[in-house]
Design goal:
One of its GO terms (molecular function) is disulfide oxidoreductase activity. With 177 residues, this protein is mainly alpha-helical. It has helices at residues 3-9, 15-26, 32-45, 49-59, 65-90, 106-109, 115-129, 132-144, 149-176. It has one domain (3-176): AhpD-like. Helix 1 runs antiparallel to helix 2 (15-26) and helix 3 crosses helix 5 (65-90).
Length: 177
């Protein structure tokens, strides 16, 4: 499956999602590694098999194996971190902030790709998962690394489009039931 096939599965009530998928697919404002890494990491984070498979197919052959592994790592590690750090942010009992996380996060120190690429993919996944603390940390690292705000915004826009495709597909299933 590809983005074109995915667009064909998006119902008419979500035609804006189709248009946004087209815009995203044709966007050349990011390097191919950043773009296709975002596709893969956000497709996985969407937790929708159709979206995941379509975006993985788009990324196939455009990412080196190490880059694809790093995008998958960003989705996986942020899946863990976003739950934990969102809990810390939302919990009224501040005692939890004083305790060690005791979560292995070695991939953050050595992701196997350019640190800014990994941070960008992690930011997008954190946006999908709704972790404000992680979003702030990744934005700070990206800004400190010199990434233009427009590229940061594009990554979050991709995350929003990808998540909206997953929701549109799920909504279509509910309507058909």
């Amino acid at each position: 499956m590809s983005i074109e096939t995915l667009k064909g599965r998006i119902p008419d009530f979500a035609k804006d999602v189709r248009l946004n998928l087209s815009t995203m697919a044709g966007d050349e404002s990011l390097t191919p590694r950043r773009k296709y890494g975002l596709f893969l990491a956000c497709g996985i984070a969407s937790r929708n098999p159709l979206v995941r498979d379509a975006l993985a197919a788009e990324a196939e052959g455009k990412l080196a194996p190490a880059e694809a592994a790093a995008a998958k790592s960003a989705a996986a590690i942020m899946g863990m971190n976003n739950v934990y750090y969102r809990f810390l942010h939302l919990a009224s009992d501040q005692t939890f902030r004083t305790l060690p996380a005791r979560l292995r996060m070695n991939v953050l120190a050595n992701p196997g790709v350019d640190k800014l690429d990994f941070e960008l993919w992690s930011l997008a996944v954190s946006a999908i998962n709704g972790c404000g603390q992680c979003i702030d940390a990744h934005v700070a690292a990206l800004r400190e690394g010199g990434m233009p705000v427009e590229e940061i915004q594009t990554a979050v826009r991709y995350a929003a489009i990808i998540q909206s495709a997953a929701i549109a597909l799920e909504a279509a299933e509910v309507a058909a039931a």
